[in-house]
Specification:
By secondary structure, the chain is of the alpha+beta class. A hairpin with a 2-residue loop joins β1 and β2. The longest helix is centred in the N-terminal third of the chain and has 88 residues. 10% of the residues are buried.
Amino acid sequence: METKKNKTEEKSLLRKAEQLRKSGKEKSAVKSDSHPVLTKVLVRLTTVITMALLATLVFIILSTHIKNTFFTEKKEIHEAMVTQQLMSVQELITQKYRYSDIITLKKSLGFSKSYSIVKFTGIIRAGIPDLSKIEFKISHDKKSIRLKVPKSEVLGNDIVDQAVFDEKRSLFVPITTQEIFEEIDSVRNSIAEEVVGEGLLEDADRDAHKVIMQMMYSMGFEAVQLEN
């Protein structure tokens, strides 16, 4: 009886072992079948993430480049416009001073005498000789501009009219036309020095700055800064 019982138990154990072995094979088969699918999913997911990151990086680089190019080109356009505007004006006269004076030239030799009384009118012009020499810098947002403006100068001191009031000429002591011109030059230069000393160039600077600022505002700048 014990022998039969033992045999029965052995068969029962063998059946369980066989069942466990089959179960293990089935699980192994399931695992071996599921690993490739999981691997493919992970590979695809990694590829998608990588491509998305690359696309984002490329977009950032391109957008930055396009933005910089756009602003650079826009800034260059503004600089060209300012340069053209300044060059179109060139000489900027902001002060004119009109004056009149009388000179008297006399010569005598013994009983011979000559004299000449001449009235003349002149105009002194002051301002900036060449606006194209102005240095400027436009802000990154194109809203403001800083300009370095040269100081004003005397641009001209011309005689616009002259007339002889009275004269007497002797062949022995003649007064030449050249002598009259030289005397007028001396007087007009003295007048120019006097007027400059009284602040003509400072007034010209002030008015020039007003003109340039108005010019820049009319071009669309919101802030304009000038310096000498």
